[in-house]
Amino acid sequence: MRTAEILVACAVLLCSSLCAQSDDDALRVFIFAGQSNMVGSDSKVRDIERFPPFSGLGEPQKKVLFSYCIGRENKRKSDGWVELAPVNDVVGPELSFAREVTGAIDAKIAIIKVAAGGTHLGGDWNPDEPKGFEMYPLALEWVRSALADLDRRKKRHRIEAFMWHQGENDMFDAGYMENYGKNLARFLACWRRDLGVPKLRFFVGELCTKTIWGMDLRPRMYAISVGQREVADADPFAEYVPTSHVGVEIGRPVGLHYHYGTLGQLEHGVNYADAYLRSVGVDRDNPRPLSKWPYRDGAKVRLFVLAGHRNMEGERAFVQDIRKGKHKALRKDDVTVAYRYDVAGGCKVSDGWEPLGPAGPYDTFGPELSFAKRLKKSGESDFAIAKFTHSGSQIIDWTPAGSVAKSRNLYPRFLEFVRTSVEQLESRGHEVEVAGVFYHLGENDMSWVPFRKQAIERLVSVIAKLREDLEMPALPWFVSQQPPTDHEGVNRVDVTADLVRAANGDPHLHHVRVFDLPGRDQELVITTEGIVELGVRLAKRYDASK
Predict the structure, then answer these.
(1) For residue 345, how far is the Cα from the chain centroid?
(2) What is the DSSP letter of 285?
(3) pLDDT class for 20, splitting at 50, 70, 90?
(4) Class of residue 421 by CB neighbours under 10 A (exposed 0-12, middle 13-18, buried 19+)
Protein backbone atom coordinates (compact mmCIF):
# COMPACT_ATOMS: atom_id res chain seq x y z
CA MET A 1 0.00 0.00 0.00
CA ARG A 2 1.30 3.44 -0.93
CA THR A 3 1.95 6.09 1.72
CA ALA A 4 -1.00 8.24 0.63
CA GLU A 5 -3.36 5.29 0.88
CA ILE A 6 -2.03 4.43 4.31
CA LEU A 7 -2.59 8.00 5.50
CA VAL A 8 -6.14 7.99 4.17
CA ALA A 9 -6.88 4.64 5.83
CA CYS A 10 -5.49 5.88 9.14
CA ALA A 11 -7.58 9.03 8.89
CA VAL A 12 -10.72 6.97 8.29
CA LEU A 13 -9.97 4.73 11.25
CA LEU A 14 -9.24 7.71 13.48
CA CYS A 15 -12.45 9.40 12.41
CA SER A 16 -14.43 6.24 13.06
CA SER A 17 -12.84 5.88 16.48
CA LEU A 18 -13.56 9.49 17.40
CA CYS A 19 -17.14 9.22 16.16
CA ALA A 20 -17.70 6.04 18.16
CA GLN A 21 -16.18 7.67 21.24
CA SER A 22 -18.29 10.78 20.70
CA ASP A 23 -21.45 8.70 20.35
CA ASP A 24 -20.53 6.73 23.46
CA ASP A 25 -20.30 9.99 25.37
CA ALA A 26 -23.83 10.94 24.34
CA LEU A 27 -26.66 11.00 26.85
CA ARG A 28 -28.38 7.61 26.72
CA VAL A 29 -32.16 7.97 26.72
CA PHE A 30 -34.36 5.13 27.96
CA ILE A 31 -38.12 5.02 27.48
CA PHE A 32 -40.29 3.31 30.12
CA ALA A 33 -43.91 2.65 29.17
CA GLY A 34 -46.86 0.44 30.06
CA GLN A 35 -49.71 0.11 32.53
CA SER A 36 -50.08 -0.11 36.32
CA ASN A 37 -47.11 -2.37 37.01
CA MET A 38 -44.99 0.12 35.10
CA VAL A 39 -46.54 3.04 36.96
CA GLY A 40 -45.69 1.45 40.31
CA SER A 41 -49.22 1.08 41.66
CA ASP A 42 -49.60 0.05 45.31
CA SER A 43 -45.99 0.90 46.09
CA LYS A 44 -44.91 3.39 48.75
CA VAL A 45 -41.69 5.36 49.05
CA ARG A 46 -41.65 4.91 52.83
CA ASP A 47 -41.40 1.13 52.35
CA ILE A 48 -38.13 1.31 50.43
CA GLU A 49 -36.03 1.24 53.60
CA ARG A 50 -37.67 -2.06 54.58
CA PHE A 51 -35.62 -3.68 51.83
CA PRO A 52 -31.90 -3.12 52.51
CA PRO A 53 -30.53 -3.71 48.98
CA PHE A 54 -32.54 -0.70 47.79
CA SER A 55 -31.88 1.69 50.63
CA GLY A 56 -31.65 5.31 49.52
CA LEU A 57 -33.70 5.00 46.36
CA GLY A 58 -36.34 7.30 47.77
CA GLU A 59 -33.90 10.17 47.35
CA PRO A 60 -33.38 12.09 44.07
CA GLN A 61 -30.72 10.81 41.68
CA LYS A 62 -29.38 14.20 40.71
CA LYS A 63 -27.26 13.04 37.79
CA VAL A 64 -30.14 11.30 36.01
CA LEU A 65 -32.57 13.36 33.93
CA PHE A 66 -36.24 12.44 34.11
CA SER A 67 -39.27 13.39 32.04
CA TYR A 68 -42.63 11.84 32.87
CA CYS A 69 -46.33 11.74 32.10
CA ILE A 70 -48.01 9.24 34.42
CA GLY A 71 -51.66 8.34 34.91
CA ARG A 72 -54.94 8.24 33.04
CA GLU A 73 -57.63 10.80 33.89
CA ASN A 74 -55.44 12.79 36.28
CA LYS A 75 -51.99 12.80 34.75
CA ARG A 76 -48.90 13.86 36.64
CA LYS A 77 -46.43 15.55 34.33
CA SER A 78 -42.93 16.86 34.82
CA ASP A 79 -42.20 20.46 33.89
CA GLY A 80 -39.52 19.65 31.35
CA TRP A 81 -36.57 17.59 32.53
CA VAL A 82 -36.13 17.11 36.28
CA GLU A 83 -33.98 15.01 38.60
CA LEU A 84 -34.99 11.36 38.76
CA ALA A 85 -37.06 10.77 41.90
CA PRO A 86 -40.29 9.06 42.98
CA VAL A 87 -43.46 10.70 41.69
CA ASN A 88 -46.52 11.03 43.91
CA ASP A 89 -45.00 8.78 46.61
CA VAL A 90 -44.91 5.91 44.11
CA VAL A 91 -41.94 3.64 43.35
CA GLY A 92 -41.30 2.75 39.73
CA PRO A 93 -38.72 0.40 38.18
CA GLU A 94 -36.82 3.37 36.75
CA LEU A 95 -35.38 4.16 40.20
CA SER A 96 -33.41 0.94 40.67
CA PHE A 97 -32.74 0.68 36.93
CA ALA A 98 -30.95 4.02 36.90
CA ARG A 99 -28.82 3.24 39.94
CA GLU A 100 -27.82 -0.16 38.62
CA VAL A 101 -26.92 1.12 35.15
CA THR A 102 -24.99 4.20 36.27
CA GLY A 103 -23.15 2.06 38.80
CA ALA A 104 -22.08 -0.44 36.16
CA ILE A 105 -21.08 1.78 33.24
CA ASP A 106 -19.57 5.23 32.89
CA ALA A 107 -22.42 6.87 31.04
CA LYS A 108 -24.93 9.64 31.48
CA ILE A 109 -28.53 8.52 31.23
CA ALA A 110 -31.99 10.04 30.96
CA ILE A 111 -35.37 8.40 31.39
CA ILE A 112 -38.67 9.24 29.75
CA LYS A 113 -41.66 7.55 31.36
CA VAL A 114 -45.21 7.43 30.04
CA ALA A 115 -47.48 4.94 31.79
CA ALA A 116 -51.12 4.58 32.77
CA GLY A 117 -52.88 1.81 34.66
CA GLY A 118 -55.66 -0.21 33.08
CA THR A 119 -54.66 0.48 29.48
CA HIS A 120 -54.66 -1.92 26.54
CA LEU A 121 -52.14 -2.59 23.81
CA GLY A 122 -55.02 -3.50 21.52
CA GLY A 123 -56.76 -0.17 22.19
CA ASP A 124 -55.07 2.64 24.12
CA TRP A 125 -51.55 1.83 22.88
CA ASN A 126 -52.61 0.85 19.36
CA PRO A 127 -50.43 2.89 16.94
CA ASP A 128 -52.92 2.67 14.06
CA GLU A 129 -56.29 3.09 15.77
CA PRO A 130 -55.72 4.36 19.32
CA LYS A 131 -58.78 4.18 21.54
CA GLY A 132 -59.69 5.04 25.11
CA PHE A 133 -56.88 7.16 26.55
CA GLU A 134 -55.01 7.14 23.23
CA MET A 135 -51.69 6.36 24.86
CA TYR A 136 -49.65 5.79 21.72
CA PRO A 137 -49.99 9.29 20.22
CA LEU A 138 -49.73 10.82 23.69
CA ALA A 139 -46.51 8.91 24.45
CA LEU A 140 -45.01 9.63 21.05
CA GLU A 141 -45.67 13.35 21.41
CA TRP A 142 -44.23 13.34 24.94
CA VAL A 143 -41.07 11.52 23.86
CA ARG A 144 -40.54 13.77 20.86
CA SER A 145 -41.05 16.89 22.97
CA ALA A 146 -38.58 15.70 25.60
CA LEU A 147 -35.98 14.90 22.93
CA ALA A 148 -36.53 18.27 21.27
CA ASP A 149 -35.86 19.93 24.62
CA LEU A 150 -32.50 18.13 24.78
CA ASP A 151 -31.75 19.44 21.29
CA ARG A 152 -32.56 22.98 22.37
CA ARG A 153 -30.25 22.57 25.33
CA LYS A 154 -27.56 21.23 22.97
CA LYS A 155 -27.29 17.95 24.85
CA ARG A 156 -26.11 15.24 22.51
CA HIS A 157 -28.21 12.15 23.01
CA ARG A 158 -29.31 8.87 21.52
CA ILE A 159 -32.37 6.74 22.18
CA GLU A 160 -30.88 3.70 23.82
CA ALA A 161 -33.71 1.30 24.68
CA PHE A 162 -37.42 0.95 25.35
CA MET A 163 -38.67 -0.83 28.49
CA TRP A 164 -42.23 -2.13 28.09
CA HIS A 165 -44.43 -3.72 30.76
CA GLN A 166 -48.06 -4.28 29.86
CA GLY A 167 -50.52 -7.03 29.01
CA GLU A 168 -52.64 -7.74 32.04
CA ASN A 169 -55.56 -5.73 30.70
CA ASP A 170 -55.44 -7.23 27.21
CA MET A 171 -56.17 -10.65 28.65
CA PHE A 172 -59.69 -9.51 29.56
CA ASP A 173 -60.58 -8.92 25.90
CA ALA A 174 -60.66 -12.06 23.75
CA GLY A 175 -59.59 -10.24 20.59
CA TYR A 176 -56.78 -8.34 22.26
CA MET A 177 -55.54 -11.48 24.01
CA GLU A 178 -55.56 -13.60 20.86
CA ASN A 179 -53.72 -10.96 18.85
CA TYR A 180 -51.29 -9.76 21.52
CA GLY A 181 -48.19 -11.00 19.71
CA LYS A 182 -49.27 -9.49 16.41
CA ASN A 183 -50.16 -6.19 18.11
CA LEU A 184 -46.87 -6.12 20.00
CA ALA A 185 -44.84 -6.67 16.84
CA ARG A 186 -46.70 -3.79 15.20
CA PHE A 187 -46.16 -1.63 18.30
CA LEU A 188 -42.38 -2.15 18.17
CA ALA A 189 -42.22 -1.50 14.44
CA CYS A 190 -44.15 1.76 14.75
CA TRP A 191 -42.00 3.12 17.55
CA ARG A 192 -38.87 2.37 15.54
CA ARG A 193 -40.37 4.05 12.49
CA ASP A 194 -41.75 7.08 14.32
CA LEU A 195 -38.56 7.70 16.30
CA GLY A 196 -36.30 7.00 13.35
CA VAL A 197 -34.38 4.27 15.21
CA PRO A 198 -34.78 1.08 13.14
CA LYS A 199 -32.73 -1.05 15.54
CA LEU A 200 -34.18 0.30 18.77
CA ARG A 201 -33.89 -2.34 21.48
CA PHE A 202 -37.04 -3.35 23.36
CA PHE A 203 -37.12 -5.12 26.71
CA VAL A 204 -40.51 -6.74 27.27
CA GLY A 205 -41.35 -7.48 30.90
CA GLU A 206 -43.04 -10.77 31.73
CA LEU A 207 -46.41 -10.66 33.48
CA CYS A 208 -45.75 -11.77 37.06
CA THR A 209 -47.15 -15.24 37.78
CA LYS A 210 -46.78 -14.78 41.54
CA THR A 211 -49.84 -12.54 41.60
CA ILE A 212 -53.37 -13.83 42.10
CA TRP A 213 -53.87 -13.54 38.35
CA GLY A 214 -51.08 -16.09 37.94
CA MET A 215 -53.45 -18.61 39.47
CA ASP A 216 -57.06 -17.73 38.74
CA LEU A 217 -56.29 -16.34 35.27
CA ARG A 218 -53.52 -18.79 34.42
CA PRO A 219 -54.66 -19.59 30.83
CA ARG A 220 -55.08 -15.90 29.98
CA MET A 221 -51.72 -14.92 31.46
CA TYR A 222 -50.14 -17.74 29.50
CA ALA A 223 -51.74 -16.57 26.25
CA ILE A 224 -50.24 -13.09 26.68
CA SER A 225 -46.83 -14.56 27.53
CA VAL A 226 -46.91 -16.69 24.37
CA GLY A 227 -47.43 -13.56 22.28
CA GLN A 228 -44.64 -11.73 24.08
CA ARG A 229 -42.20 -14.61 23.73
CA GLU A 230 -42.96 -15.08 20.05
CA VAL A 231 -42.12 -11.44 19.35
CA ALA A 232 -38.94 -11.54 21.43
CA ASP A 233 -37.81 -14.77 19.77
CA ALA A 234 -38.41 -13.45 16.26
CA ASP A 235 -37.04 -9.93 16.77
CA PRO A 236 -33.24 -9.68 17.09
CA PHE A 237 -33.61 -6.38 18.93
CA ALA A 238 -36.21 -7.47 21.46
CA GLU A 239 -35.73 -9.42 24.68
CA TYR A 240 -38.23 -11.06 27.04
CA VAL A 241 -37.41 -10.12 30.64
CA PRO A 242 -38.61 -12.59 33.32
CA THR A 243 -40.25 -11.02 36.36
CA SER A 244 -42.20 -13.82 38.02
CA HIS A 245 -39.58 -14.21 40.73
CA VAL A 246 -39.83 -10.63 42.01
CA GLY A 247 -41.64 -9.69 45.19
CA VAL A 248 -45.34 -8.90 45.06
CA GLU A 249 -47.34 -6.59 47.30
CA ILE A 250 -48.96 -8.45 50.18
CA GLY A 251 -52.65 -7.66 50.11
CA ARG A 252 -55.45 -8.07 52.58
CA PRO A 253 -57.07 -10.21 53.78
CA VAL A 254 -55.42 -13.27 52.20
CA GLY A 255 -52.11 -11.87 51.00
CA LEU A 256 -52.69 -12.21 47.28
CA HIS A 257 -52.35 -9.15 45.07
CA TYR A 258 -52.00 -8.22 41.41
CA HIS A 259 -49.42 -5.44 41.74
CA TYR A 260 -45.71 -5.77 42.41
CA GLY A 261 -45.69 -3.13 45.11
CA THR A 262 -42.49 -1.56 46.44
CA LEU A 263 -40.13 -4.54 46.55
CA GLY A 264 -41.30 -5.97 43.24
CA GLN A 265 -40.94 -2.64 41.45
CA LEU A 266 -37.36 -2.23 42.66
CA GLU A 267 -36.46 -5.78 41.65
CA HIS A 268 -38.26 -5.27 38.34
CA GLY A 269 -35.92 -2.36 37.64
CA VAL A 270 -32.90 -4.52 38.39
CA ASN A 271 -34.16 -7.10 35.89
CA TYR A 272 -34.37 -4.44 33.18
CA ALA A 273 -30.92 -3.16 34.10
CA ASP A 274 -29.37 -6.63 33.96
CA ALA A 275 -30.96 -7.30 30.58
CA TYR A 276 -29.80 -3.99 29.14
CA LEU A 277 -26.27 -4.31 30.52
CA ARG A 278 -25.91 -7.79 29.04
CA SER A 279 -26.97 -6.37 25.68
CA VAL A 280 -24.04 -3.95 25.78
CA GLY A 281 -21.55 -6.57 26.92
CA VAL A 282 -21.58 -5.96 30.68
CA ASP A 283 -21.91 -9.20 32.64
CA ARG A 284 -22.44 -8.54 36.33
CA ASP A 285 -22.35 -12.13 37.53
CA ASN A 286 -19.75 -12.51 40.24
CA PRO A 287 -17.80 -15.77 39.90
CA ARG A 288 -17.93 -17.95 43.00
CA PRO A 289 -15.50 -20.75 42.17
CA LEU A 290 -15.00 -23.71 44.44
CA SER A 291 -11.22 -23.49 44.37
CA LYS A 292 -10.65 -26.86 46.05
CA TRP A 293 -12.97 -29.86 45.90
CA PRO A 294 -14.10 -30.35 49.51
CA TYR A 295 -14.40 -34.15 49.58
CA ARG A 296 -11.62 -36.69 49.68
CA ASP A 297 -11.28 -39.17 46.82
CA GLY A 298 -13.82 -41.96 46.98
CA ALA A 299 -15.75 -40.43 49.88
CA LYS A 300 -19.46 -41.07 50.19
CA VAL A 301 -21.37 -37.81 49.79
CA ARG A 302 -24.87 -37.17 51.07
CA LEU A 303 -26.85 -34.88 48.79
CA PHE A 304 -29.55 -32.70 50.31
CA VAL A 305 -32.07 -31.32 47.81
CA LEU A 306 -33.89 -28.13 48.78
CA ALA A 307 -36.91 -27.09 46.72
CA GLY A 308 -39.95 -24.86 46.75
CA HIS A 309 -41.38 -21.42 46.23
CA ARG A 310 -40.89 -17.87 47.56
CA ASN A 311 -39.79 -18.67 51.12
CA MET A 312 -37.48 -21.52 50.16
CA GLU A 313 -35.98 -19.10 47.67
CA GLY A 314 -35.70 -16.47 50.41
CA GLU A 315 -37.73 -13.66 48.85
CA ARG A 316 -37.42 -11.37 51.87
CA ALA A 317 -34.26 -12.62 53.56
CA PHE A 318 -31.50 -10.12 52.82
CA VAL A 319 -27.77 -10.51 53.31
CA GLN A 320 -27.61 -7.03 54.82
CA ASP A 321 -29.83 -8.22 57.70
CA ILE A 322 -27.14 -10.66 58.87
CA ARG A 323 -24.24 -8.24 58.60
CA LYS A 324 -24.03 -8.15 62.39
CA GLY A 325 -25.26 -10.25 65.26
CA LYS A 326 -25.52 -13.97 65.85
CA HIS A 327 -26.06 -14.89 62.20
CA LYS A 328 -23.19 -12.91 60.66
CA ALA A 329 -21.12 -16.07 60.09
CA LEU A 330 -23.70 -17.18 57.52
CA ARG A 331 -22.50 -14.47 55.15
CA LYS A 332 -19.14 -16.19 54.68
CA ASP A 333 -18.79 -18.84 51.97
CA ASP A 334 -18.37 -22.34 53.36
CA VAL A 335 -15.79 -24.04 51.14
CA THR A 336 -16.41 -27.42 52.81
CA VAL A 337 -19.90 -27.73 51.31
CA ALA A 338 -20.42 -27.91 47.55
CA TYR A 339 -23.50 -25.99 46.48
CA ARG A 340 -25.38 -26.15 43.21
CA TYR A 341 -28.51 -24.14 42.46
CA ASP A 342 -31.14 -23.20 39.94
CA VAL A 343 -33.31 -20.52 41.54
CA ALA A 344 -35.71 -17.73 40.59
CA GLY A 345 -37.21 -19.86 37.85
CA GLY A 346 -33.86 -20.31 36.14
CA CYS A 347 -32.90 -16.63 36.30
CA LYS A 348 -29.98 -17.39 38.60
CA VAL A 349 -28.05 -20.62 38.08
CA SER A 350 -24.74 -21.68 39.60
CA ASP A 351 -21.66 -22.20 37.50
CA GLY A 352 -21.30 -25.85 38.38
CA TRP A 353 -20.61 -26.45 42.07
CA GLU A 354 -19.83 -23.42 44.19
CA PRO A 355 -19.02 -22.94 47.88
CA LEU A 356 -22.14 -22.70 49.99
CA GLY A 357 -22.97 -19.07 50.63
CA PRO A 358 -25.47 -16.30 49.92
CA ALA A 359 -26.20 -16.57 46.21
CA GLY A 360 -29.82 -15.59 45.74
CA PRO A 361 -31.07 -12.83 43.46
CA TYR A 362 -31.19 -9.29 44.85
CA ASP A 363 -28.83 -10.01 47.78
CA THR A 364 -31.13 -12.68 49.17
CA PHE A 365 -30.54 -16.12 50.63
CA GLY A 366 -32.63 -19.06 51.73
CA PRO A 367 -32.66 -21.59 54.59
CA GLU A 368 -29.77 -23.54 53.05
CA LEU A 369 -27.18 -21.54 55.01
CA SER A 370 -28.53 -22.22 58.51
CA PHE A 371 -29.54 -25.72 57.42
CA ALA A 372 -25.92 -26.63 56.65
CA LYS A 373 -24.64 -24.97 59.80
CA ARG A 374 -27.04 -27.00 61.94
CA LEU A 375 -26.14 -30.25 60.13
CA LYS A 376 -22.50 -29.64 60.88
CA LYS A 377 -23.28 -28.93 64.51
CA SER A 378 -24.91 -32.36 64.76
CA GLY A 379 -21.82 -34.02 63.27
CA GLU A 380 -22.78 -34.32 59.60
CA SER A 381 -19.86 -34.14 57.16
CA ASP A 382 -19.19 -34.83 53.50
CA PHE A 383 -22.49 -33.44 52.28
CA ALA A 384 -23.53 -31.29 49.35
CA ILE A 385 -26.61 -29.15 48.77
CA ALA A 386 -28.58 -28.71 45.56
CA LYS A 387 -31.36 -26.11 45.52
CA PHE A 388 -34.12 -25.71 42.95
CA THR A 389 -36.75 -23.00 43.42
CA HIS A 390 -39.17 -20.79 41.58
CA SER A 391 -40.74 -18.21 43.87
CA GLY A 392 -43.38 -17.37 41.26
CA SER A 393 -44.65 -20.94 40.96
CA GLN A 394 -47.60 -22.79 42.41
CA ILE A 395 -47.71 -26.49 43.27
CA ILE A 396 -49.45 -27.35 40.00
CA ASP A 397 -46.32 -26.17 38.17
CA TRP A 398 -44.29 -28.88 39.92
CA THR A 399 -46.64 -31.75 39.08
CA PRO A 400 -45.82 -34.27 36.33
CA ALA A 401 -49.07 -33.32 34.59
CA GLY A 402 -48.37 -29.59 34.73
CA SER A 403 -51.01 -27.16 33.50
CA VAL A 404 -52.24 -25.41 30.38
CA ALA A 405 -49.43 -22.89 30.95
CA LYS A 406 -46.80 -25.21 29.51
CA SER A 407 -43.89 -22.81 29.83
CA ARG A 408 -44.41 -22.88 33.59
CA ASN A 409 -44.13 -26.68 33.95
CA LEU A 410 -41.21 -27.29 36.32
CA TYR A 411 -41.19 -31.05 36.87
CA PRO A 412 -38.97 -32.02 33.90
CA ARG A 413 -36.41 -29.38 34.87
CA PHE A 414 -36.55 -30.35 38.53
CA LEU A 415 -36.02 -34.02 37.73
CA GLU A 416 -33.11 -33.22 35.42
CA PHE A 417 -31.59 -30.92 38.05
CA VAL A 418 -31.59 -33.65 40.70
CA ARG A 419 -30.30 -36.28 38.28
CA THR A 420 -27.50 -34.05 37.06
CA SER A 421 -26.48 -33.18 40.61
CA VAL A 422 -26.11 -36.87 41.44
CA GLU A 423 -24.30 -37.65 38.19
CA GLN A 424 -21.81 -34.84 38.64
CA LEU A 425 -20.89 -36.04 42.10
CA GLU A 426 -20.62 -39.64 40.88
CA SER A 427 -18.39 -38.54 38.00
CA ARG A 428 -15.91 -37.36 40.60
CA GLY A 429 -15.75 -40.88 42.03
CA HIS A 430 -18.18 -40.46 44.92
CA GLU A 431 -20.88 -42.79 46.06
CA VAL A 432 -23.94 -40.56 46.40
CA GLU A 433 -26.83 -40.90 48.79
CA VAL A 434 -29.75 -38.54 48.26
CA ALA A 435 -30.46 -37.83 51.92
CA GLY A 436 -33.82 -36.27 51.15
CA VAL A 437 -35.84 -33.61 49.41
CA PHE A 438 -36.65 -30.66 51.66
CA TYR A 439 -39.65 -28.84 50.26
CA HIS A 440 -41.45 -25.82 51.68
CA LEU A 441 -45.14 -25.98 50.90
CA GLY A 442 -46.39 -23.49 48.31
CA GLU A 443 -47.50 -20.25 49.98
CA ASN A 444 -49.76 -18.75 47.32
CA ASP A 445 -51.70 -22.01 47.00
CA MET A 446 -52.96 -21.55 50.54
CA SER A 447 -54.84 -18.34 49.67
CA TRP A 448 -57.08 -19.55 46.86
CA VAL A 449 -59.60 -22.33 47.46
CA PRO A 450 -59.19 -24.29 44.18
CA PHE A 451 -55.43 -24.57 44.66
CA ARG A 452 -55.58 -25.07 48.42
CA LYS A 453 -58.06 -27.88 47.93
CA GLN A 454 -55.72 -29.77 45.60
CA ALA A 455 -52.40 -28.77 47.20
CA ILE A 456 -51.55 -32.02 48.97
CA GLU A 457 -52.91 -34.24 46.20
CA ARG A 458 -50.64 -32.42 43.77
CA LEU A 459 -47.68 -32.59 46.12
CA VAL A 460 -48.13 -36.35 46.58
CA SER A 461 -48.07 -36.77 42.79
CA VAL A 462 -44.73 -34.96 42.62
CA ILE A 463 -43.28 -37.10 45.40
CA ALA A 464 -44.41 -40.36 43.80
CA LYS A 465 -43.19 -39.46 40.32
CA LEU A 466 -39.78 -38.22 41.46
CA ARG A 467 -39.20 -41.41 43.42
CA GLU A 468 -40.21 -43.45 40.38
CA ASP A 469 -38.07 -41.53 37.89
CA LEU A 470 -35.01 -41.53 40.16
CA GLU A 471 -35.60 -45.20 41.00
CA MET A 472 -35.50 -44.32 44.69
CA PRO A 473 -38.80 -45.66 46.11
CA ALA A 474 -37.84 -44.79 49.67
CA LEU A 475 -36.54 -41.28 48.93
CA PRO A 476 -37.32 -39.22 52.05
CA TRP A 477 -39.32 -36.01 51.68
CA PHE A 478 -39.37 -33.40 54.41
CA VAL A 479 -42.24 -30.99 53.78
CA SER A 480 -42.23 -27.87 55.91
CA GLN A 481 -45.47 -25.99 56.39
CA GLN A 482 -45.92 -22.45 57.67
CA PRO A 483 -49.34 -21.38 59.00
CA PRO A 484 -51.72 -21.57 56.05
CA THR A 485 -53.63 -18.42 55.21
CA ASP A 486 -56.18 -17.83 57.96
CA HIS A 487 -59.38 -16.41 56.48
CA GLU A 488 -62.96 -17.55 56.41
CA GLY A 489 -62.86 -17.60 52.62
CA VAL A 490 -60.27 -20.42 52.55
CA ASN A 491 -60.44 -22.04 55.99
CA ARG A 492 -63.06 -24.56 54.89
CA VAL A 493 -60.15 -26.42 53.30
CA ASP A 494 -58.07 -27.95 56.12
CA VAL A 495 -54.82 -28.32 54.23
CA THR A 496 -52.89 -29.17 57.40
CA ALA A 497 -55.10 -32.18 58.06
CA ASP A 498 -54.63 -33.21 54.43
CA LEU A 499 -50.86 -33.12 54.83
CA VAL A 500 -50.98 -35.02 58.13
CA ARG A 501 -53.00 -37.79 56.48
CA ALA A 502 -50.52 -37.99 53.60
CA ALA A 503 -47.58 -38.23 56.00
CA ASN A 504 -49.32 -40.89 58.11
CA GLY A 505 -49.75 -43.00 55.01
CA ASP A 506 -46.16 -42.63 53.80
CA PRO A 507 -43.30 -43.67 56.14
CA HIS A 508 -40.84 -41.63 54.12
CA LEU A 509 -42.84 -38.39 54.11
CA HIS A 510 -42.08 -36.15 57.08
CA HIS A 511 -44.36 -33.23 57.95
CA VAL A 512 -42.30 -30.38 59.41
CA ARG A 513 -44.77 -28.04 61.09
CA VAL A 514 -43.20 -24.58 61.47
CA PHE A 515 -46.14 -22.52 62.63
CA ASP A 516 -44.15 -20.43 65.11
CA LEU A 517 -41.35 -19.05 62.96
CA PRO A 518 -40.21 -15.52 63.74
CA GLY A 519 -40.15 -12.87 61.04
CA ARG A 520 -43.64 -13.44 59.73
CA ASP A 521 -45.53 -10.17 60.10
CA GLN A 522 -47.52 -10.52 56.85
CA GLU A 523 -49.44 -13.29 55.14
CA LEU A 524 -47.43 -15.58 52.85
CA VAL A 525 -43.93 -14.14 53.38
CA ILE A 526 -41.22 -14.94 55.93
CA THR A 527 -38.44 -12.44 56.54
CA THR A 528 -34.78 -12.95 57.43
CA GLU A 529 -35.02 -14.24 61.00
CA GLY A 530 -37.69 -16.75 60.03
CA ILE A 531 -35.77 -18.04 57.02
CA VAL A 532 -32.73 -18.67 59.20
CA GLU A 533 -34.88 -20.54 61.73
CA LEU A 534 -36.56 -22.55 58.95
CA GLY A 535 -33.18 -23.98 57.96
CA VAL A 536 -32.47 -24.94 61.55
CA ARG A 537 -35.84 -26.67 61.96
CA LEU A 538 -35.43 -28.66 58.74
CA ALA A 539 -32.00 -29.89 59.83
CA LYS A 540 -33.28 -30.85 63.27
CA ARG A 541 -36.11 -32.84 61.74
CA TYR A 542 -33.65 -34.65 59.51
CA ASP A 543 -31.52 -35.52 62.54
CA ALA A 544 -34.57 -36.84 64.35
CA SER A 545 -35.49 -39.06 61.39
CA LYS A 546 -32.21 -40.96 61.34
Answers:
(1) 8
(2) P
(3) very low
(4) buried
Average pLDDT of every residue of the chain: 94
- Mind spelling out the 3-state secondary structure of 203-222? EEECCCCCCCHHHHCHHHHH
> d(Cα 268, Cα 34) in Å, to the nearest integer?
13
DSSP 141-180: HHHHHHHHHHHHTT--EEEEEEEEE--TGGGGSHHHHHTH
- CA 437/CA 485 separation, integer angstroms: 24
Q: State the CATH number of the domain containing residue 382.
A: 3.40.50.1110
Whole-angstrom Cα distance, residue 113 to residue 120?
17
Strands (E), 3-58: 27-34
Relative to beta strand 431-440, strand 300-308 is parallel
Residues 318 and 253 in one domain: no
Residue 34 backbone phi and psi in degrees, to 5: 155, -150
pTM, 2 dp = 0.94
At how many degrees (to 10) do helices 411-427 and 449-470 cross? Answer: 30
CA distance 2 to 492: 90
Based on the structure, what is the number of domains in the chain?
A: 2
Residues 388, 262, single domain; the answer is no
Distance CA 490, CA 367 (A): 28
Could you count the other beta carbons within 10 Å of the beta carbon of residue 236? 9
Distance CA 378, CA 80 (A): 64
Cβ partners under 8 Å of residue 70, min gap 6: 39, 76, 77, 87, 88, 90, 113, 114, 115, 116
Do 120 and 96 meet the contact criterion of CB atoms below 8 Å apart? no
- Could you read off the pLDDT of 255-285 as tens digits, one per residue? 999 999 999 999 999 999 999 999 999 988 8
| pLDDT higher than threshold 90 for residue 11 | no
DSSP string, 316-364: B-BGGGGSSSTTGGGGS-EEEEEEEEEEGGGTEE-SSSEEES---GGGB
Chain centroid, CA 24 distance in Å: 30
Domain's final residue, options 279, 309, 343: 279
Average pLDDT over residues 28-46: 97
Q: How many CB atoms lie within 10 A of CB 327?
A: 16
DSSP codes of every residue in 479-534: EEEPPPP--TTTTTS-HHHHHHHHHHT-TTEEEEE-TT-SS--SSS--BHHHHHHH
8 A C-beta contact, residue 408 and residue 209: yes
Residues 308 and 270 in one domain: no
